[in-house]
Write a structure and sequence with these properties.
By secondary structure, the protein is of the alpha/beta class. The chain has two domains: 60 residues; 231 residues, Rossmann fold (3-Layer(aba) Sandwich). The strands form two sheets. Strands 5-4-3-6-7-9-8 form a seven-stranded mixed sheet, with helices on both faces. α6 links the parallel β3 and β4. α1 packs parallel to α3, α2 packs antiparallel against α3 and α5 packs parallel to α6. 42% of the residues are buried. The C terminus is likely disordered.
């Protein structure tokens, strides 16, 4: 692939050249990505920039464009990505945080706000970057959050984000296997579990977009039917929750009924599904039966907005 020659070009012309290269490579939303790559390389918004590109900035932009044209995720090139109103470190070996997952965090925060008592104990299982656990800690400051992750490639990102993403906030990191880790915890010791588990089916794993194929399979592969982790979360993990505690899980767009059925077979109550901001089913919430009924989940779209631009 011939590298773009961008030195001396006006910002608008350089941006057009990068966008064309990305479009030719089949990159979705090439215009957005071209602007983001320009900001990364040059440090300025291309819409407000007028100076011709100096050689060093031009070379950096051309390098970024080549990587993105090779379908490397934009998040990996940027080495960080925003989630809700904070920024996470990200890179090869960890799942990229996605806007769809924000509604999972919003749902967990909404439920915690309805619970009685201070200092709720929260587990973020299959934590990856820690976006869910950190999001809970961001909006429920007295929550005692522990993020669980098994992957040795993802753990460095999780640990760094736990230290740096929310200055002054304490979030614990635990290296553990979600498929067996419930055995090590005391019954009734947790108020809420939140998780974005691997949920792609075997067929979906064979048909990944090029960018997704660069992300860790461990964070994506949910077994032949995509339900391996949901069986575990709705089954033995229930004992870890206190009576009335909640389980909040991200799902694939077509998994609503299958996961709700698992919840029903395992005796969960007040089940519900919430949609993401694109209108796809995205969150299943289930309550452990007990003396603390909490609030019914119902079948609803989003009822919690944590960012001003979503009010």
């Amino acid at each position: 692939m011939i590298e773009l020659s961008l030195a001396g070009l006006a910002p608008r012309d350089a941006l057009r050249a990068v966008r064309t290269r990305l479009e030719e490579a089949g990159v979705p939303d090439a215009a957005f990505d071209a602007r983001e790559l320009y900001r990364l390389a040059v440090g300025r918004d291309p819409r407000l920039d007028t100076a011709p590109l100096p050689p060093d900035k031009a070379a950096a932009l051309a390098s970024f464009a080549a990587r993105r044209a090779g379908r490397e995720p934009l998040q990996y090139i940027a080495e960080s990505w925003d989630f809700l109103d904070f920024t996470l470190r990200v890179g090869p070996g960890v799942l990229c945080p996605r806007a769809d997952t924000e509604v999972v965090c919003e749902t967990a925060v909404d439920l915690l706000g309805k619970m009685a008592g201070a200092g709720p104990v929260v587990l973020d299982l299959c934590a990856g970057t820690g976006c869910l656990g950190l999001g809970v800690r961001r909006f429920v400051p007295d929550a005692r959050v522990t993020c669980w992750e098994k992957s040795p490639e993802a753990l460095p990102y999780l640990r760094r984000n736990a230290r740096e993403a929310l200055p002054g906030a304490e979030v614990a990191v635990h290296e553990g296997n979600v498929l067996t880790g419930w055995r090590d915890l005391s019954p009734g010791s947790v108020d809420l579990i939140v998780s974005n588990p691997p949920y792609l089916t075997g067929a979906e794993m064979q048909a990944l977009m090029p960018e997704t194929a660069r992300e860790p399979a461990m964070a994506l592969d949910g077994g032949a039917d995509g339900l391996v982790f949901y069986r575990c979360l709705t089954g033995p993990w229930q004992k870890v929750l206190r009576p009335g505690g909640w389980l909040v899980m991200e799902i694939g767009y077509a998994q609503r009924q299958a996961v709700l059925d698992l919840g029903a077979r395992n005796g969960w109550v007040n089940s519900g599904c919430r949609q993401d901001y694109g209108g796809s089913d995205r969150v299943i919430l289930l309550q452990k039966p007990g003396t603390d009924p909490g609030s019914p989940a119902g079948d609803t779209t989003n009822s919690c907005n944590l960012r001003p631009d979503r009010v």
